[in-house]
Design brief:
This protein has helices at 19-22, 25-56, 131-135; strands at 92-96, 102-106, 116-119, 127-129, 137-145, 151-157, 162-168, 176-177, 187-188, 198-201, 204-207, 215-218, 223-226, 230-235, 240-245, 249-255, 258-263, 271-278, 289-295, 303-308, 311-316, 319-323, 331-334. The strands form six sheets. Strands 1-2-3-4 form a four-stranded antiparallel β-sheet, with no helix packed on it. Strands 5-6-7-8 form a four-stranded antiparallel β-sheet. Helices cover 12% and strands 36% of the residues. The protein has 335 residues and is mainly beta. The chain contains three helices and 23 strands. The longest helix has 32 residues, at 25-56. Among the domains are: 87-185; 207-335, 6 Propeller (Neuraminidase).
Length: 335
C-alpha cells in the first residue's frame, strides 16, 4: 500500500477577523485611494503653512499713522534748527569835525559789528575806518568829533562786548582807550529785554523820559531825547526832564543856542520836515518852527543829523543830504 503523503502545515493559531478582512476588494481599493488623497492634501496644507510662516518673519510694512480732522500730509523730514542770526540795529550816528570832515556810524550789535566811516569832502565820498580790527568795536552808543582828526565814541568792544570809551587823534588811524568818556559823554544804554533804555549822564544812568528813546542828541552842556510823542531836555538844575509834545522825530542835532531836528508828518512836506527850537534851554512853553523840508527823504528809515560851521547834514536811509542855509533847503550830496 502506498503510504499517504502527509502535508506539513503550520498554524500559528486562529487570528481574529479584522475590519480590513471584512472589506471587499473593491472597498479596499477605494479606501487606499482615499488615504492617498488625504496624504496629498495634508502635504499641500503643510506647505502653505510653512510659506505663511516664512512671510510672517519678514519686517512688516509700516503704515502711516492716521490723522483726523484734516487732510493727511506727507511724512515730514526732521526740521534743522539753524543758529539764529542777530538782526542788525537800525540806529545811526553822525558828527561833524568842520564844514568838510564828517564822521558817521551804524550802531551795530555784539554779533554784527558797527561800521564807522569818515568823509573829507563834505559827505560826497566815504572811507571805512577799521575799528573792528583796531580794537574789536562791536556797538556804538555815542559819536562826537572835536576837530577834523579828533573823534570820540562810547561803545562796546571785545568778545565780552564790554562798554568803554575810545578816541583817536589821527583821523582814526590809531585808537586809545578813553574810560573818562563814560562820565563826560551822554549816551543811551543798550535796550533791555523789556524794550526799555536809560540815559547815562556824568557817568550815572537816569530814567529816560519815555520807555524807549528813539533819538538822542547832546553837546558839551545839553542833552535832548526824542520819544514817540515828546521831545525832552535834561534839566541839570533840578535833575529832571522838561518835555514838549511832538511825534515822529527821526534825528536831533543839539547846539548851544538851538535844537535842530527832523520829523515825519510835517504839514506840507513830502519827506522829512526840519524844525528849529531856539534858545539855550527848553521850557514847557517852547514851540518849534518849521524851517525846511527834505523832499524825498525816506520817512520809514533811520536818520542822523549833524551841523558845523553853518552846514547841516541829514543822513537818512541810503542818502546824505546837506543844507548851507540853516536847514531851509536841502540837496542830496552822496550815499
Amino acid at each position: 500500500m502506498t503510504p499517504k503523503q502527509s502535508r506539513s502545515t503550520y498554524r500559528a493559531g486562529d487570528r481574529k477577523e479584522t475590519f480590513w478582512d471584512r472589506l471587499g476588494s473593491k472597498r479596499r481599493t477605494l479606501a487606499i485611494i482615499g488615504l492617498v488623497l488625504f496624504l496629498i492634501a495634508d502635504v499641500v496644507l503643510v506647505g502653505l503653512a510653512l510659506t505663511a510662516n516664512g512671510r510672517s518673519t519678514e519686517e512688516p510694512t509700516q503704515r502711516p499713522i492716521p490723522t483726523f480732522g484734516g487732510t493727511p500730509s506727507a511724512t515730514a523730514s526732521p526740521e534743522v534748527t539753524e543758529e539764529p542770526v542777530a538782526a542788525e540795529s537800525t540806529e545811526r550816528f553822525m558828527a561833524a569835525g568842520n564844514a568838510t570832515v564828517l564822521w558817521r556810524a551804524t550802531q551795530g550789535t555784539c554779533e554784527v559789528p558797527a561800521v564807522v566811516e569818515r568823509s573829507e569832502d563834505a559827505g560826497v565820498t566815504w572811507a571805512v575806518i577799521p575799528t573792528a580790527q583796531a580794537f574789536d568795536l562791536r556797538v556804538v552808543y555815542a559819536l562826537t568829533a572835536t576837530s577834523e582828526d579828533e573823534v570820540q565814541l562810547v561803545g562796546s568792544a571785545g568778545a565780552e562786548c564790554a562798554v568803554g570809551g575810545f578816541s583817536s587823534t589821527d583821523a582814526g588811524d590809531t585808537w586809545d582807550s578813553s574810560p573818562e568818556l563814560l562820565s563826560t559823554v551822554p549816551y543811551q544804554t543798550p535796550v533791555a529785554p523789556d524794550g526799555s533804555t536809560a540815559v547815562v549822564m556824568a557817568g550815572q544812568p537816569v530814567a529816560a523820559p519815555c520807555p524807549a528813546v528813539e533819538a538822542l542828541g547832546a553837546d558839551e552842556t545839553r542833552t535832548v531825547a526824542a520819544c514817540s510823542a515828546v521831545l525832552a531836555e535834561w534839566d541839570t538844575t533840578n535833575g529832571s526832564w522838561t518835555a514838549i509834545p511832538f511825534a515822529g522825530i527821526h534825528a536831533v542835532d543839539v547846539q548851544p543856542e538851538q535844537i535842530l531836528f527832523a520829523a515825519r508828518g510835517v504839514t506840507g512836506c513830502t519827506g522829512l520836515g526840519v524844525l528849529l527850537l531856539p534858545g539855550t534851554a527848553m521850557t514847557a512853553a517852547s514851540t518849534p518852527d518849521v524851517v525846511g523840508c527834505v523832499v524825498g527823504a525816506d520817512v520809514t528809515a533811520p536818520a542822523a543829523l549833524a551841523s558845523a560851521e553853518g552846514v547841516s547834514w541829514l543822513w537818512v536811509g541810503d542818502t546824505l543830504f546837506n543844507s548851507t542855509d540853516d536847514g531851509v533847503s536841502w540837496v542830496s550830496v552822496g550815499p
